[in-house]
Specification:
mainly alpha; 6 helices; single chain
Length: 166
């Protein structure tokens, strides 16, 4: 881990260091996810779908909205992942027209195999911060995540406008 003495850095240098650290974190996360995907033979959309299921069962519509895929593409993606034993598909008990997708035990085992060590080591990193520092980190990460989501929505809206004007 890189030790940073923030008391010896001015604000401009800290802002630069934070920006570079965020870019490095994004790049490292993407590279790791791609390496896992390569090892397991999963596309980016398939990995995204399985990551969504980490939070619990989802509808096919929710997967389509989150991935930006068409309903037909999501159906094909679900078919592929179901055939590999990575998810199950059942009818919703509340609305029989809806399909509910859920991760399987195999998916949970693979997640633990490839991401468990990161989670465990991450807990050790988190333990090195005070509650006040964790509150600041949470506020920063949440604000930055909101920023990323807002920029993605703006970019997608611009793409639609550009497509419409062609």
């Amino acid at each position: 881990m890189i030790e940073i003495n923030s008391s010896s850095m001015n604000r401009a240098d800290m802002k630069t260091a934070i920006s570079l650290a965020i870019m490095g974190w994004q790049d490292a996360t993407q590279a790791y996810d791609e390496a896992v995907g390569d090892r397991l033979g999963l596309s980016m959309a398939e990995r995204h779908c399985l990551a969504l299921l980490y939070g619990g069962p989802r509808s096919a519509g929710e997967v389509a909205a989150a991935t930006g895929l068409t309903p037909a593409a999501v159906t094909a993606l679900i078919d592929r992942l179901e055939a590999r034993g990575l998810l199950t598909r059942t009818r919703s008990l509340e609305d029989r027209r809806k399909v509910v997708i859920e991760a399987t035990e195999l998916t949970r085992e693979l997640s633990t195999r490839y991401y468990g060590a990161i989670a465990q080591e991450g807990e050790k990193v988190i333990a090195t911060f005070t509650d006040i520092e964790l509150g600041t980190i949470l506020r920063f990460v949440t604000a930055y995540l909101d920023l990323q989501r807002d920029q993605l929505a703006r970019l997608k809206a611009e793409a639609l406008e550009t497509t419409d004007s062609l």
